[in-house]
Amino acid sequence: MEHTTEREIFERYVHRRGGRLTAERLRLFDEIFNQHGHVDADRLYRSMRRQGRKISRATVYRNLELLVDCGLVRRQRLGQRRYLYEHVHPGQSHDHLICRMCDRVVEFVSPGISALQRELARAHGFDPTEHTLQISGICLDCAGRASTETAASEES
Amino acid sequence: MEHTTEREIFERYVHRRGGRLTAERLRLFDEIFNQHGHVDADRLYRSMRRQGRKISRATVYRNLELLVDCGLVRRQRLGQRRYLYEHVHPGQSHDHLICRMCDRVVEFVSPGISALQRELARAHGFDPTEHTLQISGICLDCAGRASTETAASEES
DNA sequence: GTTCTGTTGAGAATAGGTCTCAATAAGCCG
DNA sequence: CGGCTTATTGAGACCTATTCTCAACAGAAC
Ligand SMILES: [Mn+2]
Ligand SMILES: [Mn+2]
Ligand SMILES: [Zn+2]
Ligand SMILES: [Zn+2]
Given A108, A120, A136, which is nearest B110 (Cβ)? Predict the structure, then answer.
């Protein structure tokens, strides 16, 4: 009654494509599935090197691409220059609020949005494979800080 | 009973910031407001040069940023490497479907999504300034082409 | 016209990701 | 195990969209 783990999904996916389960590939899998939240490629690279895992940047990028193709990792730009990666658990999906002042990212789940998205795609003849919804604005903290500063500068 | 044009909004915005209405700035404004749909910075640059308007790349980028800050231009990545810009008419807002095979972009308007977005932002204490919703998938044409090819290769 | 200072142009710099290719090592077979 | 095929790796070159630098220029105010 065990259900298939992400690791099993990955190994099958690699085999189905005629690929090989190299040491680097599997270590990168473990690394990203042990991380919480969003990571960029360089952080994964450095974190693996720090642990004494020898791996090259190119290999990190190549295997991240593989994980994305496989559907186990999501790659997206969240307001910044570089791509961020996060592992995905099948059947779950969330979106992001991004503070344009401090770059803080808040995740949320909205079934309503997901339903609307499927509907819209269908209405335009699209077979939807994924979506990205990013709402950017100012978070509570930054809004507070901004108004304090405005008040202070107006005093002087 | 004239309502303010985008050009007027821009000029006021520039003045309010202590900026100047330079020839290059105003020509870029005209250029992007004469273009339809999405353009990248380099296309604007080349299109202006072609018309004999002398302008540098740096100036194009700097003034696009100004237009974005001013709220008259939207900058986003639509599946590709470079940013795309489009002029915005106040009060309107649309989102995008992107075909991951042919990069075709289809625009749509969904009041439901807009309302949900505002609600979600508020629920998390965000003051929403803008949003991006991108649904990527396979368009009708590409879906058709793909299934034809699959059939053909299975025959052989 | 003079002055002050925001803006421009040309090109260098940056950054993040991609490509190259010789060396390595999975996976398979006997 | 030992050899064979070929996918993958590592190191660094390469790419390219965007940002930065700084001296020359030109709006705007008076
Ligand atoms: Mn997330
Ligand atoms: Mn659009
Ligand atoms: Zn913030
Ligand atoms: Zn298509």
Answer: A120
The 10s digit of each residue's pLDDT in B84-113 is 999 998 778 899 999 988 888 999 999 888
CB distance A110–B130 less than 8 Å? no
pTM here?
Answer: 0.89
CA nearest to A122, candidates B147, B135, B145: B135
Clarify whether residues A112 and A129 are in a common domain: yes
Closest nucleotide to residue B60 (Cα to C1')? C8
Q: pLDDT by residue (tens digit) across A98-141?
A: 998 888 899 999 988 888 989 999 999 999 988 899 999 999 99
Read off the tokens for A1. 């009654």
Where in the sequence is the domain holding A5, given as residue range(s)? 1-92
Q: Which residue from B29, B5, B9, B28 is spatially nearest to B17, judged by alpha carbons?
A: B9
* CATH code at position B142: 3.30.1490.190
Number of cross-chain residue pairs from A and B with Cβ atoms under 8 Å apart = 103
Of B92, B111, B144, the one marking the end of a domain is B92
